[in-house]
Design brief:
- The protein is mainly α.
- It has one domain.
- The protein has 12 helices and no strands.
- Helix 1 crosses helix 12, helix 3 crosses helix 11 and helix 11 packs across helix 12.
- It starts with 13 loop residues before the first helix and ends in an 8-residue tail after the last helix.
Amino acid sequence: MRGSVTMKPTARNGKIDLLKFLFSLAVIVFHFGKGIYRYDFCNKGYIAVEFFFVVSGFLFARSLSRYSCYTDTLAKDSTAFMKRKFLSLFPYHLLCFLVCFVFTAVWQSWGAGTWPVHLFNALPDLLMLQMSGLSHLSLLRYEWYLSAMLIVMFIFTPIAIKYRKFFLYWLCPVVFVFAVGWLYHQKHDLDFIRQWTGVCMAGILRAAAELSLGCLCYIVHENKWLDRVPKALLFLIEGGIYAVTFLYMSRQLDGLNDFTILFLMGIVVPISFSDRTSLRFLNNRFVYFLGKWSYSIYLMQLLVIEIVKPIDCGSSVLHTLLFVGCTLVAAWVCMIVTDSVLKLLRHWRDQHTSKGTPSSTGE
């Protein structure tokens, strides 16, 4: 017996897309400020990554819920799922990688003979495997989130397909509790990723913990536990948690800690995905565009930092605004170029396929 997967189209969540955009701005401002000015504003913007991890875990569990496990197709289904996930991210990453590689080569005056060596050393970065422990191209270091997410999903996917209830109801809670406990006792915040644990980098454990939390959020959604909570209370909790999170990122709530915010993310994400808290006016093409834009913003930020950093704007505020504006433009260009190339490739593939299809007359 062979398994089949019914991939029903799911409507995008405009609220989540808008939040992705806002959190992506928070994280790039944090990186710019930390690297140049070390100002207090948004000095905990790295917490935005927790939102992305938890949301990714939720969507991961939701996607795999459509799979029926058949032993003879487990490897094929797992590989197909990860292939789709990788290919949805890779084209934009590839453009960023190429631009960063050329920029670094010119900026550091590499000799023509050293280009192949540097390219070979950068293969882990090209394949989004930075968090495997092998990474040489520093201009892609902020992509650690994507690399860690893909590595952990690669490990989780066959388990989640074959042993779905075991994975969701037993393994995810265990991974979350033990990984978060280890992270807490190593450093009482989440702003570290490259410490070697003896088995993997700390960022892998951070990804495993928070993707697991996202899967637990999906359990809440799947079982409709929020249906028992008054709608007005859900909106109040949701707005309050996001307000607390953004205030915390801007260092207005020093009494809290990163792990408190992480647990709050576990509460608010299933609320934001609930149909009962849907804001229909956000379900439009512009907001969907903002959600897609956030990925390119995350990719292009470090390259723009290196370009904008030497510019003297007279004040940190103007310098930051210049950086944000340039990052938005660079991200938009990245999207336009990548989408255009993908469209051309699809057109070429369709033409090539149609030429190879026999006509109905059999000629």
